[in-house]
Each structure stands twice: as C-alpha cells, then as structure tokens.
Design brief:
The structure is a single chain. With about 425 residues, the chain is of the alpha+beta class. It has 3 domains: about 5-120, no CATH class; about 130-240, DNA polymerase, domain 1 (Orthogonal Bundle); about 255-435, Intergrase catalytic core (hpI Integrase, Chain A), CATH 1.10.443. The chain has 16 helices and 12 strands. The strands form 5 sheets. The protein has a 3-stranded antiparallel beta sheet with strand order 1-2-3, covered by helices on one side. Strands 8-9-10 form a 3-stranded antiparallel beta sheet. Helix 2 packs across helix 3 (about 110-120) and helix 9 (about 270-285) crosses helix 12 (about 340-355).
C-alpha cells in the first residue's frame, strides 16, 4: 500500500490578513499526518480541485491587488511557492520509496518522522530572475489609483536605469545584492550614463538632482519590498546622497507689480493666462489645485478645498486681487479659465517676457563633480509652480509670519518649506541699510 499525498489549505487557521496555511497530508492505512509547508495564501490563490496554487493572468492579479492590496504576492513568488510544494511532495515520495525497497514495515507516522529528522538541508534559495522588476511593476499598480497622476514616472525611470545598469555590468540585479557597494556603483553608473536621441542626435545626461532622486526612490522601493517579506540587504539603508540645492524661481514685488499692470486685454489667450498665474501668486495654490477649483469651493471670503497632492483640507482667505479675478469670470461655470499645464507653461513665459521680466538668472547643475552653469533671462524659467513660490516669498517679505504662510500653503514642517523661501536682492539691501546705515 502506498501513501496518499495531497496538499490542503487550512481554512480554520487563517491569519489576520486572511491568509491560510498550506499543509501536506500524508495518509496511509487510515493514519494521517500533516507536514507544514511554511506557505500561507489567500483562498483566492488556491485551487481546491487541483490542489495547487493558481497562477493568474496579469489582469486578474491586478484586480486581486486592488481588492486585497499588499497581501497578493507577485507572480514570480507564486511560481516559487509552487516549485517548493512540488519539491516537498517529491521528497516524501523518495522517502517512501526507500522504505518500500528496504522491506521494513512503515506507516505515515514513520514517513513524516524520517522527513523531519533527516531531511536534506535546503539549498540557498535562488531569487527569481525578474523579481526586482516584477516588484516595481507591482508597486506602480498598487499605487497608481492613490497617487497623483505622473508621480510614479520616477519608478518607471528607475526600472529602465536598473536594466541598463544590469546590461552594462552583465550581472543580474537582485534584492539580496543591493548593499552599500551596489548603491555606490549604481550612482557612479548614473553619473556616467548618457543617451543619444535617435532622431536629433542630442545627448541626454543626468544631473545630480535627478540622480539623487533615483537613489532616494530606490531606497524607498527597497523598504517597500522588505515590508512585503522580500529578503533585502541592510547595507542600502546606510547609503545617502547629498542633494544639490535647487534655485527658487519666484517673482519679486517689482516684477509682480509689472505683470499685474501689464495690459494684454487685446489678447484673450494671454489675458486668461495672466489671471490664472496671478491667482496662484496670491493664493499659493498649485496648478493641480487650480484645475480642480469649483464654485462650491468658494465660501464668501475664503476658498475651502482638499489639496490634490497631500489629500489635506485647505483654507485660503481671499484678497483684493483674487476677488478681482474671480469676479471677472463670475458668468462662467468654472471660477478660472483653466488650460492644460503644458500650454500654460508655454504662454506664461511669453507673458512674462512682455512684462520685461528679463533679469539674468544663473542655473547651476552638477554631474558628479562637474559644474555646469548657464545664464537665462528670468522669463524663460517661469512656470506654473512659480506662482506658489512667489506667494511664499512675497508673503514673507510683507511680514506675514512663516507659520501662517506654512498653514496656507499646507507645509507641515519647516525643512520642506524653507526651500521656497527666497530673499530677493531688494529685500536684502533694505535689511542691510536698516541695520547698518
């Protein structure tokens, strides 16, 4: 008589996440013994009919991830689990075959005892070939509904750069190898990396700001993988990259006044862009928040809405200029004549050029230790985000306390707020004259 082997999902032993352990039942002559596999899964990932793990399509997996979140392992892990189950079953069959040929009477108790007492030490687990990239894809799928559109692009870039790094080094990128030395090698690779556009022939290189963002994203991703049960090397935690300071492009009071006084009424396109930009300058709202602004958000003397980026409620008092702009469009359904971010960034540069906002601004970027400096007329550097920075700098210049400005803009700590604080030259001269003259 041969032993009967079947895997069973223990529905009576579900953990807090709803995962149920898989055991191997060894039955013989009315006796049953259980062997723990160390694997626990949601019942949706188990086939009671076939007694094996269900390997689904990417679409089905994505649906389950939306329903259950991080409880769903990636496909590569599921395949690894099934291979372990097959290996366990083969091992029990090998033990029973040895007992049968020895002629010694045996039962299920004897089979399981031999397995537990003399099982062959497991070989070191080999990390599935594409586990890192599968996990990046899974991270993107899990977060694309809760994160602002476009914020996950950096993870797609990370995947591309890791694959390029892998091709150059001719060595597989694995979680278990991402130690301090790996992080250093990857940073050096990014510094040297360049890409030639197939059509224009232009060479694209990464500056230190972009490189620091890639390293920071990789560390965040490794932390996510570790929390999901992936074995990672702790060496990455000690690695840090100094971030170069970004220039703060904001209008000073003189430039703001020049733009406010600029008459572009004959050009509806620029007139509307001017109003949108000035509204941002006097409220501190991001472009994404202006896009979602509706009439119901305006409550008498203030605006109340939930910030798109942080999901936090915001209250911004209306002032003379913001009321003036809202009144101009009171006949419209929406409070502001919004356009796409891409068109806005193009038109606002044209607008600021007409307002003669042309002071030279030096932009310094580093690539490794190599310094790259370029001078631009200021209007070329103005974008949608300049409005928010202008609000911060002008508000501080007018004497509004930093904590009040932070409350309006939604900054929770000064560390992230201070990069927006730019003391313009006029304020600097006034302060020096007041103190010394």
């Amino acid at each position: 008589m041969e032993a009967s082997l079947r895997f069973l999902l223990r529905k009576d032993l579900a953990n807090k996440k709803g995962e149920q352990p898989i055991v191997l039942m060894v039955s013989m002559g009315g006796q049953k013994r259980k062997i723990s596999t160390g694997i626990a899964l949601l019942p949706e990932l188990w086939s009671d009919e076939k007694k094996e793990i269900v390997i689904m399509t990417s679409k089905k997996m994505a649906q389950l991830e939306m329903k259950f979140g991080d409880v769903i392992p990636p496909k590569a892990i599921l395949l690894k689990y099934q291979a372990e189950l097959n290996e366990l079953k083969f091992e029990i069959q090998r033990i029973e075959e040895g007992l049968r040929f020895s002629g010694v009477p045996y039962d299920s108790h004897e089979i399981v005892s031999i397995y537990k007492e003399s099982k062959i030490p497991k070989k070191k687990e080999v990390e599935p070939e594409n586990l890192v990239y599968d996990f990046i894809d899974q991270y993107i799928r899990e977060n694309e509904l809760s994160r602002v559109k476009g914020s996950l692009v950096v993870y797609k870039s990370l995947k591309k750069h890791l694959k390029n790094f892998e091709d150059e080094k001719r060595k597989r990128v694995r979680f278990e190898n991402m130690d301090y030395s790996f992080m250093q090698d990857f940073q050096n690779f990014l510094i040297d990396w360049q890409e030639i556009h197939p059509t224009t022939g232009n060479v694209k290189k990464l500056n230190n700001i972009t490189i620091a963002k890639q390293i920071s994203t990789l560390k965040t991703f490794l932390g996510y993988a570790r929390r999901r049960g992936i074995k990672t090397h702790d060496g990455y935690k000690e690695y840090s990259v100094k971030k170069d300071r970004l220039e703060v492009i904001a209008l000073n009071q003189k430039e703001f006044d020049a733009l406010y006084a600029l008459d572009v009424s004959a050009n509806p396109r620029l007139s509307q862009v001017k109003d949108i930009f000035l509204f941002s300058c006097v409220t501190g709202y991001r472009f994404s928040d202006l896009l979602q602004l509706k009439r119901e958000h305006i409550k008498q003397n203030e605006i109340r809405l939930t910030i798109t980026k942080t999901k936090e409620p915001s209250i911004v008092p209306l002032t003379r200029i913001s009321r003036e702009i809202l009144k101009k469009y009171e006949e419209r359904v929406l409070p502001l004549p919004m356009i796409s971010n891409q068109k806005f960034n193009k038109y606002v540069k044209e607008l600021c050029e007409l307002a003669e906002i042309n002071d030279p601004v030096e932009i310094v970027r580093y690539r490794g230790a190599v310094r790259d400096s370029k001078i631009y007329p200021k209007h070329e550097l103005v974008s949608a985000h300049t409005g928010r920075k202008t609000f911060v700098t002008l508000s501080l210049g007018k004497g509004i306390p930093a904590e009040v400005v932070m409350k309006i803009t939604g900054h929770s700590d000064y560390k992230s707020f201070k990069r927006y604080v730019e003391v313009d030259e006029e304020r600097k001269r006034d302060a020096m004259s007041l103190a010394w003259d």
